[in-house]
Amino acid sequence: MVLESTQRILVVHRERPLSVIDSERLSVPIAIDQVSFDISILEQLENCYDLLVLDWHLEQPDARGVLDAFRQTAPESWVLALAAEVPDDDPVDRGVDEVLVEPVAPTALAGTLERLLFQCAYERTMHNLFRLSTERAVLETELESDVAVGDQYQSVVQELQTCRERAASIRAELSGDSFDQTLRQLFSE
């Protein structure tokens, strides 16, 4: 399995749209948490989620406010908006990564969830790859200056190789269109 750790999804939708998903059929291990509307949603937003599934027409509280608060809490997570009709305002302009107009077939919803989770994992892996590449370059300079960082350098080189392999395995799971979309989003930041 490419994504070995369980991917966490938070659902802010009164009708529980993910209840139609058979998580055993997904190639990604997931855990789905449904917010409780009996307590403050803000108290339930955490940085442990990989994906937020949001009812775009939610009024109490307002979906845009939930989105803004979630982006502050979990800036590296992705957001899927579900809308009962085509929204007048474009959710993507507000920071949503994908919009689906309901009703959505369970297979289409499951495919979208998987793709978004892979894209999120790929983006995080690429950020880590860039960080490790920079760290390796700094350590190489220090090695040339006879600073004793040999063990640290070897550790970073190994991490970098592991990160490259992870990126390649995730990229292999994404279709060509999904991969292109992920790259566009990654480079737009």
Automatic annotation (TrEMBL):
Coiled-coil region: none
Domain HalX: 121-182
Pfam families: HalX
Domain of life: Archaea
InterPro entries linked to this entry: CheY-like_superfamily, HalX_domain
Name by which UniProt lists this protein: Response regulator receiver protein
UniProt organism field: Natronolimnobius baerhuensis
